């Protein structure tokens, strides 16, 4: 049973969007319940890469990336949130999901996390420099020819853009079991990525979305005004966060309109080895509640995950309509294959994509290697029992 002396340990990632909001929430939770949650942070790269086996042994609460859920669930690393007295709350959150975000933390009929942070690849611009951003890829490339476009293309982000563009053509990665992409399906995607990479500064190929947002928001005299594909950070849309505010908008339309953006975000999960699983579940449900998400969580830099907050007038007014301005893209986002082998495929192929954009690897070699790996890793069944 939870007692006033209960202390939980949590691990998240080192950004206001990941850390400050949890610290603020924990302080209020302790004031209300007497339960202390001590949060630590890891780097953004470690957020994607750190082995959950190690983290679940050391922490009670974890902020995780949803593609880890299938492997973590199969390995018994995460506690189920359902069937423990919170099913009505879980049902309400599921009904309030923004797109598929809540469902990505479910596996094999059980809920293993809550989508407390929802994001997908969208576009961003400096409204003072570019009032009317591009809405299609032809205009994006024209703007890039003028030297005004940035694009994060370090390995994990180059991978994400490739996946987004492929899904936006109706040919998502892994749509054929055991296959990455066919040569025919990959050709137009890689062609567009090459053309974009050739038109942005070289440093973009080692940059992540935070670094691109920092460059766009800086007061350094540069003319950069737009990025077409990157994960959204509402912090940069808020007054006073950086010298200039950024406005996030839907991604450029592809053959299927706004469909296909690779869904990201982050969710709070409970270790199956938590010192007090019930107490950890209670905190997770509390921090995911509309009251917290739309209040102190957002005010401390968090990016809420559920619909009540995305529809909130105050939050949208405060963030240049970050939530309403990108929601169409989020609602039509693509969910990566729900297989335990996805993380290994993603981690292995991502560097190859950036190497290809640098000209260090040719398209044919990238696809051959990726398809050979997918033949081993993408043949599992997803959480519904259907081919992934």
What does this structure look like?
This protein is α+β, with helices and mostly antiparallel strands and 388 residues long. The protein has 2 domains: 7-119 and 264-319, 3-Layer(aba) Sandwich (D-Maltodextrin-Binding Protein, domain 2), CATH 3.40.190.10; 121-262 and 327-388, D-Maltodextrin-Binding Protein, domain 2 (3-Layer(aba) Sandwich). It contains 16 helices and 10 strands. Strand 1, helix 1 (16-33) and strand 2 form a beta-alpha-beta unit. Helix 7 packs across helix 8 (183-197) and helix 7 (155-167) packs across helix 15 (342-357). Pfam families: SBP_bac_8. It comes from Microlunatus sagamiharensis.
The helix-strand sequence is: EHEHHEHHEEEEHHHHEEEHHHHHHH
CATH fold description of the largest domain: D-Maltodextrin-Binding Protein, domain 2
- The rough form would be described as globular
Strand line-up across the major sheet: 2-1-3-10-6
CATH architecture of the largest domain: 3-Layer(aba) Sandwich
Briefly, what CATH class of the largest domain? Alpha Beta
Beta-strand percent range: 5-15%
| End-to-end C-alpha gap | 40 Å
Protein name: Carbohydrate ABC transporter substrate-binding protein, CUT1 family
InterPro entries: SBP
């Amino acid at each position: 049973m939870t007692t006033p002396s209960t202390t939980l340990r949590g691990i998240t990632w080192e950004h206001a969007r990941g850390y400050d909001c949890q610290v603020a929430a924990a302080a209020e939770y302790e004031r209300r319940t007497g339960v202390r949650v001590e949060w630590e942070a890891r780097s953004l790269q470690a957020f994607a890469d750190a082995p959950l086996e190690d983290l679940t042994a050391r922490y009670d609460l974890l902020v995780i990336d949803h593609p880890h859920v299938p492997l973590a669930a199969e390995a018994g690393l995460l506690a189920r949130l359902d069937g423990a007295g919170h099913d009505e709350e879980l049902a309400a959150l599921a009904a309030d999901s923004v797109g598929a975000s809540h469902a990505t933390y479910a596996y094999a009929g059980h809920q293993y996390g809550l989508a407390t942070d929802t994001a997908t690849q969208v576009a961003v611009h400096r409204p003072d420099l570019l009032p009317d951003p591009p809405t299609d890829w032809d205009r994006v490339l024209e703007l890039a020819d003028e030297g005004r476009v940035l694009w994060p293309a370090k390995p994990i982000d180059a991978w994400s853009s490739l996946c987004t563009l492929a899904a936006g053509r109706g040919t998502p990665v892994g749509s054929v079991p055991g296959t990455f992409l066919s040569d025919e399906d990959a050709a137009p995607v890689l062609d567009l990525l090459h053309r974009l990479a050739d038109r942005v500064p070289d440093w973009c190929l080692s940059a992540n979305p935070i670094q691109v947002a920092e460059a766009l928001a800086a007061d350094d005299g540069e003319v950069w005004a737009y990025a077409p594909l990157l994960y959204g950070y509402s912090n940069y849309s808020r007054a006073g966060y950086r010298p200039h505010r950024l406005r996030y908008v839907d991604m450029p339309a592809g053959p299927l309109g706004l469909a296909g953006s690779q869904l990201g975000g982050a969710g709070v999960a409970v270790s199956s080895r938590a010192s007090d699983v019930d107490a950890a579940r209670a905190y997770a449900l509390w921090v995911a509640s509309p009251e917290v998400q739309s209040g102190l969580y957002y005010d401390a830099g968090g990016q809420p995950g559920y619909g009540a907050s995305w529809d909130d007038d105050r939050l949208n007014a405060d963030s240049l309509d970050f939530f309403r301005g990108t929601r169409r893209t989020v609602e039509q986002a693509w969910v990566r294959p729900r297989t335990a082998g996805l993380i290994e495929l993603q981690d292995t192929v991502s560097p190859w994509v950036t190497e290809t954009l640098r000209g260090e690897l040719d398209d044919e070699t990238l696809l051959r290697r990726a398809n050979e790996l997918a033949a081993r890793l993408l043949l599992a069944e997803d959480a519904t029992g259907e081919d992934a």
